Amino acid sequence: MSEKSEELVGKRNPYLDACRGVAAISIIAIHTAFYGYLFVPNWFKSLTLLIDVPFFFYLSGWASSYRRPDVIKTGKSILRIWAQWIVFIILIDILCMISTTLNFSYPPLELPDLLKSFLFADHMAPGFYVIGGSTWFIPYFFGVLLLNNAVLTIFTHSTRPKEYAKAYTIFLILSVIWVGFGDYFFGLDVPFILFYGAIWMMGYNGFAKTKRFSVFITTIAVAAAGLIFFSYVDYHLNSVEFLDMQTSKCLPSMKYFFFSLFVIIISRYVENFVKKPSRILSHIGENALYYFFGQGVGSSILSHNLIRPLSENWFPVWFVAFLVNLILTALVAESARFVYRRLKALVIRIYEKTRRIE
Questions:
Q1: pTM (global) more than 0.85
Q2: How many domains, in total, are found in the chain?
Q3: Is the distance from CB of 223 to CB of 262 less than 8 angstroms?
Q4: What is the pLDDT along the chain (358 residues), one digit of tens a residue?
Q5: At what angle do helices 14-34 and 279-286 cross, to 10 degrees?
Q6: Whole-angstrom Cα distance, residue 303 to residue 43?
Q7: Residue 53: which domain range?
């Protein structure tokens, strides 16, 4: 650990939380463009993917660099996230039940689909289908957390843990190339684990952290060169157009990898100049998962109430829709956060009373 890392053990990094907040808001912008708003041009949709799921994984790895690897604590963290998700799904199903008494309604889930939703299966209520479609990364997040923390725990018992961690990161990146362009696929899920595992490890190792402008420019130039090269390769091997980033994301490729590096590189350099991050962004970042969950509600509502522009000037319509989605998401996220915290406090109180009786 660096001196700064040791200072932040047990504390939150406000700038990192603000970056998480930016990532959460970006997901809202992405799904405002992708779900239902067919008038948004493809180049803009691809542009919104600059700040996407890879940035979230990078930030998670970065946050983990402030504490020692611990598989048991990681498992508890996963259970906490899972509990938040289950509470959120139950609240959504209750909302669907209530809506059946109104002029507009969202059919609630049948019990089998509700149980599948608890396991992050894409079986959401028809009215809120974006929730399931936009939280696909959570199981991969769990897998990456467990795998990388298990490996790092082993490395901590060696004489050169930092060197082993960097070598493991390089191994993951090379594996992405092998699986993406080689002849062998070890199952559909493996490329996702390798890709996001590599991004997480880059955050853990502090990739792109620098105070030197020359290093920043060089890193940006390398990312641009990598993007151009692999876009060329992707086009000739897989017929994926240069501006089609969504296809490159669906089975993560090196093109999407280098595309995602830009925001990572910029965020680490900008860190040098931000003394007091926005409290609003930091708050959203501290509760990013609630916002990731909640944006599915806002995006679903907007996709069912499609507004098309009266002219070719599509951007103002998208921007207004994005603001509406942001407000809806904030309401859902903060409500879910409030309910979960109250339920958690109640469970703890009951548990403590039970302990006293024993």
A1: yes
A2: 1
A3: yes
A4: 444 444 445 578 999 999 999 999 999 999 988 875 567 888 899 999 999 999 999 999 999 999 889 888 999 999 999 999 999 989 988 888 887 777 766 777 788 878 888 887 765 555 677 887 788 888 899 999 999 999 999 998 888 988 999 998 998 888 877 766 554 444 447 888 999 999 999 999 999 999 999 999 999 999 999 999 999 998 888 888 888 899 889 888 899 999 999 999 999 999 999 999 999 999 999 999 999 999 988 888 887 765 565 556 788 888 988 999 999 999 999 999 999 999 999 999 888 888 776 6
A5: 80
A6: 20
A7: 3-357
